[in-house]
Amino acid sequence: MNLQEPNLLRHSGYVDGSWISADSGATFAVVNPFSNEIITRVANLAEPETERAIAAATLAFQTWKQRTATERSRILRKWFDLLLVHKEDLALLMTVEQGKPIAESRGEVEYGASFVEWFAEEGKRAYGDVIPSPRSDARLLAIKQPIGVVAAITPWNFPIAMITRKVAPALAVGCTVVIKPAEDTPLSALALAYLAEEAGFPRGVINVIPTDRPAEVGHLFTHDPRIRKLSFTGSTATGKKLMAQSAGTLKKLSLELGGNAPFIVFEDADLTEAIAGAMTSKYRNGGQTCVCTNRFYVHDAIYDAFVQKLAKAVQALKVGDGRVADTEIGPLINNAAIDKVDRLVADAIEKGARVVVGGGRSEAGPRCYTPTLLAEVDTTMDLSREEVFGPVAPIFRFTTEAEVIGLANDTPYGLAAYFYGKDHARIWRVAEALEYGMVGINTGLISTAVAPFGGIKESGFGREGSKYGLEDYLVVKYLCWGGINDRTVTP
C-alpha cells in the first residue's frame, strides 16, 4: 500500500494514549480477502491490556465528562476534518483488509465521517426538562448525564462507519470508550485512533483493543462493572450471549443484530426504479451488509419482467480486486463466508430453484462469488430463513398484499425491509404492517446519520444515528429542589 500518510498503518493497540504491543508479544495476521496474502501483523491484545484500557477509560471519564459540550464538539469536528483529509488512504486501507470496491470504501469513509459531524453538533442538544411541580415550594427537573465507560464491539463489514456510529455519540455526551474491532479488519480502527489522537482527544478517552480472541475480551467487557454500556453489532447468537453475560452488572445495551430483509415489488411499481433499488440493496458490499435484501417478493403479474430486467443488471456486474477502479463486487470476507453461500445456493437448486445468472464461485479470485439470481424460490429452501450475506438474489412470487405481508413478517428478525409501489393507501398499510425497525419505500438506500438505525424482534434494540442515537449514551437524573418559597415575602 502506498499511503500518503504512512502513519495510518498501525501495528499496535492503543491504550491510555499510547501505542502498545501485547504483554505476551503475540501478534495475529491481517489478510487481504481477495489475494489471501498477509498484509501485516498486529498486536494481539488480551485480558491484561483490556483491563488497563478499562482503567484508563474510567479515569479519563472523570475529566472528559466535565468538558463542556462545545469543547468536546470542537475536538470531534477536528476528527471529522481529518477523516475527510485522509479519505483516500482510509479507503485504500479498508479495501485491502475488507475487500470492498474502492468506490464503496470512499463512500464509507464519508458516511462514517458524517456521524462524527452530526454528533459533534447534536451533543450540544442533550436537553433536559423543567417539570411543572405539584408543590409550590419545590421545583422538579430532569437532567441528562453521560452513562460512563462504553465498550464497543464492531463488525468487519463496515470497519469505519460502525465505529463512528457508536463512538461519536458516546464521546459527544462525555463518555469514554474501549473499542474491540473485528479481527478481520483492525487496521481501519487503528487508523481512526491515530486520527483521533491527532485531533486532540485526551489520553484514555479512546482505546482500541485488536485481538483474535474476541470471546475473551467480550467476557471481560460484560463482567466488568466499570463498563456501564455495551454496544454490539454482529450476529443474533453472539448478541444473545453478550446480553446474558451482561445481566450480572445490568449494563445498558445496544444490540444491532442479524437481519432477513424482504424486498417487495407490487404490480404498480416503477420497474426501472425497483431494479435500481434492488441492485443497491442487494449487491452493495457484495451482499455483505445487515440491511441487504435477503428475499425478493415480486407480484406474479410482473414477475417475469422483473427477473429479466434484474438479470441483465446482475450480469453486467464486474467481480474482482476492490483496488481496481471498475470492480463492483469484491471478495467475501473469508472461506467460511463463501462456503455458506455455496451451501445455500446448492440447497435452493436441489429443491427446485432456477439459476438465471451465476450460481457458483467466480474465477476472479478464491473468495469471489459470481453475482447470482435465482428464480422460482420458495419457503422450503434454507435461504428463505438464513441470512445469505453474499451476492445472491432469490426471487419469490406472490399474488396478494395479505400473502406477502405474512411472508415478509414470517421471520424472527426485524431489521430492515423495502417495498415498491404507487398506491398511496397501500403504502401506508404496508409500511405500518411490516414488522421491521426500518422500512425503505421506493428506495433501496436508507442509511443516513440523521435517521435512527436499528431493529426489533431478534434483530436487537437501541438506535444509532439521529437524535435518538444520543439517548443510548445518556442517563436521566431527576432533581427535586425543595424550600423554594421565601417566607419573608408577604403578598
UniProtKB/TrEMBL annotation:
Q: Where is the active site?
A: 256
The question of whether Oxidoreductase is a record keyword is answered with: yes
Q: Which UniProt keywords apply?
A: Oxidoreductase
Q: Which CDD domains match?
A: ALDH_F5_SSADH_GabD
Q: Name one GO cellular component term.
A: cytosol
Which Gene3D superfamilies does this entry report, sorted A to Z? Aldehyde Dehydrogenase, Chain A, domain 1, Aldehyde Dehydrogenase, Chain A, domain 2
Every Aldehyde dehydrogenase domain range: 19-478
**What GO biological process terms does the UniProt entry carry, in alphabetical order?**
gamma-aminobutyric acid catabolic process
**Which Pfam family would be a valid example here?**
Aldedh
* Gene Ontology molecular function, alphabetical: succinate-semialdehyde dehydrogenase (NAD+) activity
Q: Could you tell me which PROSITE patterns the record lists for this protein?
A: ALDEHYDE_DEHYDR_CYS (PS00070), ALDEHYDE_DEHYDR_GLU (PS00687)
Q: Which InterPro entries match?
A: Ald_DH/histidinol_DH, Ald_DH_C, Ald_DH_CS_CYS, Ald_DH_CS_GLU, Ald_DH_N, Aldehyde_DH_dom, Aldehyde_DH_Superfamily, Succ_semiAld_DH
The answer to whether keyword Lipoprotein applies is no
| PANTHER family referenced in this protein's UniProt entry, alphabetically | SUCCINATE-SEMIALDEHYDE DEHYDROGENASE, MITOCHONDRIAL
Protein family: Belongs to the aldehyde dehydrogenase family.
Q: From the Swiss-Prot or TrEMBL record, give the protein name.
A: Succinate semialdehyde dehydrogenase
